[in-house]
Amino acid sequence: MLGRLVIRRPWRVLVTSTLVLLASFAVAATTVSSLSLNRYEALGSESAAARSALDRLFDTGSPNVALLVSSSTGTVDDDAVVALGGELTEAVTAFPGVGDAWSYWSPDAPDTLAGADRRQALVLAWVPGDADHVRGEVLPALQAEVVERFDSDDVEVALGGGDEIFRVVAGQARADFLRAELIVIPLVLVLLWLVYRRLTPALATLAVGLFAAAGSLALLRLVLPFTDISTFAANISLVMGIGLGVDYSLFMIYRYREEVAAGHDTTTAVGRTVAGAGRTVLFSGLTVAAALAVLFVFPFPFLTSFAWAGIAVVLCAVLGATVALPAILRLAGRRMLRPTGPGRPEDGFWFRVSTTVMRRPFVTGGAGLLALLVLGAPTLGLTFGSPDDRVLNDGDQPVRTMYDTIRSDFAAEDADALLVVAPDTTVGPGSTAVPDSDLHDYAASLSQLPGVARVDSAAGAFTAGDRTGPAGPFGADRFESGAATRLSVLPTSERLAQDPVGLVREVRGTDAPFEVVVGGYPAELADYRDGIVDRLPLVALLILVVTFVVLFVMTGSVVAPLTAMVLNLLSLSVMFGVVVWGFQDGALAGLLGFTPTGVVEPSILLLMFCIAYGLSMDYEVFLLARIQEEYARTGDVVSSVPAGIARSAPLVTAAALILAASFAVYASSEVAFMQQLGIGMALAVAVDATLIRGVLVPAALRLTGRASWWSPGPLRALHDRFGLREHPVTPAAGPPPTSPSADTRPTLERTTR
């Protein structure tokens, strides 16, 4: 029905699609500016409870803003700098939106707020509110009205803090997005021209990609009133929109060319292309959307943003490929064909490769499997961790320079203290609930933990080896509030850089004489990380189940989907391997200019897994559809494999090349995890389209033979009722294709009925 509609009214469909595209561009521009600056925070976690208690009981919180004051001529103890530091602290304290502030120049401030050489010192502040308020409103105003006012020839003032770091990261991601647009679009057009050898199909394919990218951003605008969408979703919409638009358009145009080569006129060829290849595109889109939809499992807006973006991209790519593109095919006619005419698939490279593989499946398949295992071996050393300023590459970013100074010159990082809160606990002299001695012993115990520089509490300030508890640096009133008390556990810079998550666990594991909750910036990052890692098994299970169902509906087999899932997981191990080897261990640091931290941020790796797995299944759908089509036509379980691969592998290779190039553009990003995403995804797509589809798939299908298309009786009946049925490419006239032999007909009927 859709094909007939497009054939009858191609101009109407094309004009409507063009107007939708132009409207999408206009709406997309407003979407990008409205996206959110999400934090790495886990709602409902212990750190969230601590943050709420600090706000409610103490009117303070973990410092999320820091100002580094550097003296140009003397030290921070010089009279002029002391006076300026006091004025700066007062200005920050009084600034609209700031809830609390203190500094090295505050009364009884600890020495850790100054550098070892006394040339730098810190002002810390807590700004309540969500990330958009803090990063979008308070910080820009603080930079313009306070930092720039106090910055002078005598002292240099730099703005930092956790929210400032990721404000800069988000801004850099936006700049990378714009640069990627300028590079990806002409690059894709050139590659498409090399694939098609004609400008018309290249422009049509790029138009579908732009339709998917712009349309997805426009759809996200409809979601924004109901949920937060991360700024990084725009990057995903661009690269996946272009990639899926190219994938689906290549598949449709290749099928159109085959239909014309089989003797059908161009009008009939369009209808048969939509009726046949269009359904495969739909199933492929369902697979990719399902792989990304599992991100809704996570209660983190940063991750659910990519689920919304992925679903929107798939919807727009499928619509563009099955509605707008057929209208172009109908109007362009023979201008969409190869200038030299179609070649025989049997003469192609992939036919020869797959035939060679199937002659010796154990040898070739074993060699391919060994290569995957070797490339994926570094995955065994994967270590999850939390991001910090080092996600910004070395360069001209002041916030990165600021924290390099803090790491090298400061013994501890007060802004990253762990905050231990005991709500509804009266502590102190004369208390009947918790004696002051219990608080004294608990604070002293925390100070003995490896990597703890100092513990501040109402009972005093404790350092390792000092259990006497001298007077607290800010006075007892900062650590007591009515029926509550709190402690500040200050980590050393070395421990914070090496193992912040381990420190959080040790603090939480220390026996306390009263109920406590542990918060602070390191605890928030640890809870976010744990929230992701704990749900990884569920996400993996959901992805496997959903993709199995989609492939079963397409093939009617239980063996082929299982084989595909195993091979896809093996290909993804290569992606994980290069991330660990290149980014966690730093092998690519010199080439790309980032700073390795020895850990991988889990949410980005999870996003990569979902995208790569969905795209792998995308290619698997194309491949299996053509192999099964050949099997249904000939009944030959062996020859159908190279024949199907010969017809699908060229377009899969071309699509993978273009998609890999689009992802690889992000290797030039100034944000480390965008580089990780670009390099890892480019490699995953390249390996999947070559080693997996060209070697391991034909080897596996040769070894499983006719069992590849087997399923139990009840499932066969279910597939007969609801499964995908794609007609083969048949000549327009002449005798029907050779019927399968009698001994294979029952099996074929089960798979093609």
Automatic annotation (TrEMBL):
Secretion signal span: 1-28
Keywords: Cell membrane, Membrane, Signal, Transmembrane, Transmembrane helix
Cell location: Cell membrane
Domain SSD span(s) in chain numbering: 208-331
Chief place where the protein resides: membrane
Region (Disordered): 726-753
Gene3D superfamilies: Multidrug efflux transporter AcrB transmembrane domain (1.20.1640.10)
Family matches, as Pfam families: MMPL
Membrane topology label: Multi-pass membrane protein
InterPro entries: MMPL_dom, Mycobact_MmpL, SSD
Transmembrane feature ranges: 177-196, 203-223, 229-251, 281-300, 306-329, 362-384, 538-559, 566-584, 604-625, 645-667, 679-701
Family: Belongs to the resistance-nodulation-cell division (RND) (TC 2.A.6) family. MmpL subfamily.
Protein's UniProt name: MMPL family transporter
